[in-house]
Amino acid sequence: EVHFVESGGGLVQAGGSQRLACVGSGFRHNEYTIGWFRQAPGKEREGVACISRKDGSTYYRNSVKGRFTIAKDNAKNTVYLQMNNLKPEDAGVYYCAAGPDRGSSEAAMRTLLAYYRSGFESWGQGTQVTVSS
């Protein structure tokens, strides 16, 4: 079972930048898809970006393309999310998740979300991102 500790959130003005990090433990190999998800108050948790721990391929939801960058450092068991030009709608609690490698795509993110909803893994505490307009 993989566990994550997320960090790097806080208050930022619209147009600003933040870099989130999640440090994982419990990895048994490199064949994982790791995703960043977020949840705003009263809204469903949604996928933001994901990366294959094996080959580094990435996927982004349309609303963050060109503004967010996901990256990994396998040696540090860490995945980063660099967020630029933040918008108020980017606010929420951001979480990391890892599941069996399905590459990086919208389908891989849906599979990862279902994997956690089924209880195979548990969410960490997340990190709060607040964007002031």
Descriptive report:
- The chain is 9% helix and 47% strand.
- The strands form two sheets. A six-stranded mixed sheet has the order 2-10-9-4-5-6. Strands 1-3-8-7 form a four-stranded antiparallel sheet, with no helix packed on it.
- The chain has 133 residues and is mainly beta.
- The mean pLDDT is 95.
Total beta strands? 10
Helix content: under 10%
Strand order of the largest sheet: 2-10-9-4-5-6
Biggest beta sheet summary: 6 strands, mixed
Q: What is the percentage of strand-forming residues?
A: over 45%
Poorly predicted runs = none
The chain-level structural class is mainly beta
Give the mean pLDDT: 95
Topology of helices and strands:
Layout lengths: L2 E5 L2 E4 L4 E8 L6 E8 L6 E7 L5 E3 L7 E6 L4 E6 L8 E9 L5 H12 L9 E6 L1
Parallel strand pairs: 2-10
Antiparallel strand pairs: 1-3, 3-8, 4-5, 4-9, 5-6, 7-8, 9-10
Short description:
The chain is mainly beta. Helix content is 9%, strand content 47%.
What keyword list fits this structure?
mainly beta, single chain, four-stranded antiparallel β-sheet, 133 residues, six-stranded mixed β-sheet
